[in-house]
Amino acid sequence: MYFLYTIIASLAVFFILKWLKKRRYCTDLRRLDGKTILITGGNSGIGKETAIALAMRGARVIIACRDSDKAEKAVREIKLKSHSLNVLYMELDLANLSSVRDFCKSFLQREKKLDILVNNAGMPGVLEWTDNNFSMCFGVNHLGHFLLTNLLLPRLKECAPSRVITLTCSSYKYQKLDFQDLNYNQLPFFTYCRSKLANIYFSQEVARITEGKGVTSYAVHPGKRSFVQSGWTCHYSILFRMLVQVIMWMFFVPCEIGAQTVIYCAVSDEAAKHSGGYFIDCRPATLRPFARDAAVAKKLWEASERLVNLA
Fold first, then answer.
1. pLDDT at 22 over 70
2. pLDDT digits (tens, 9 = 90+) for 118-133
3. Which of 24, 170, 207, 267 could form a disulfide with 217 if both were Cys (CB 3.0 to 4.6 A apart)?
4. What is the Cα–Cα distance from 89 to 71, expressed in whole angstroms?
């Protein structure tokens, strides 16, 4: 009898894990020949899988990250897996606003097109500070991408129809923004949640200010019932990484699956009808009411302009 219970329990665990890992795939086979795509943090995780998929569709893919050695290795792997030579790397450190400005200046000089911007790079909840004295989560996840998008927005408008895709997380629902302390950096998880909520407001405001100008904007959560096996654990100790890797192997979905909704928002005509929307599993999803507040989104945009000295 004990043996039978063991088998039943094992089967139950197996099917639960299978259910947790079940995901939609992007079935839209649209080609992207002639398109130029910029992906921040495209050297690993979801960003790299997105780069592979979009390069396979014929796009010119530029991955932007700060570690040149990792980037060059990733470019070789992306080229090999996508069978495309039209993949390159540009240096960008989102934790340094001067680096963001230098990157945009160089990009606009070198690249005459930008059809899709994927704001993928992100930091987990770490109690660290950027070079400009912002909390690492808020500075990288929101402010760095905020400045980057604004400086590249004229090129996106020139290449319309174009798209801005910003990765967020369902953990946004556990916090609200405090405009008296946007630079909150006390409890790591709450810091991360606030930065992901800021990503959602940012995506909505991009959609609002570009309405009628050919630019659409999407906020993407790459998982639904579970999270994605990305490389965020590299910011923690070896022991913590080993523990989390086991948990991720059991319950989290592979980055290839996590990238599907990003790919969907990059190519789908149906997605284009929902500019400013929030997407999970290749379809629009409903946000909590407080995350749909247009007044808060505008207030955050104006505050971010001041923080990054954007005239």
1. no
2. 999 999 888 899 999 9
3. 207
4. 6
H/E element holding 90?
A: strand 87-91
pLDDT surpassing 50 at residue 163: yes
Please name each of the domains of the chain with its CATH number: 32-226+259-307 (3.40.50.720)
d(CA 311, CA 300): 15
Between helix 145-158 and helix 188-209 the angle, nearest 10°, is: 20
Which positions are annotated as active-site residues? 192
Please measure the distance between the N-terminal and C-terminal CA atoms of the chain and give it in whole angstroms: 73
Report the pLDDT averaged over residues 280-290.
96
pLDDT band at 239; cut points 50, 70, 90: low
| Residue-by-residue DSSP string for 243-308 | HHHHHHHHHSBPHHHHTHHHHHHHH-TTGGGGTTEEEETTEEEPPPGGGG-HHHHHHHHHHHHHHT
- Measured CA to CA, the distance from residue 121 to residue 47 in angstroms comes to 7
Q: How confident is the model at residue 17 (pLDDT cuts 50, 70, 90)?
A: very low
Which CA distances in Å does 199 have to 137, 250, 300?
11, 28, 10
Exposed, middle or buried by CB within 10 Å (0-12, 13-18, 19+), for 220?
buried
Q: Buried b vs exposed e over 15-46: b needs ≥16 C-beta within 10 Å?
A: eeeeebbebeebeeeeebeebbbbbbbbbbbb
pLDDT on residue 124: 85
d(CA 23, CA 237): 30
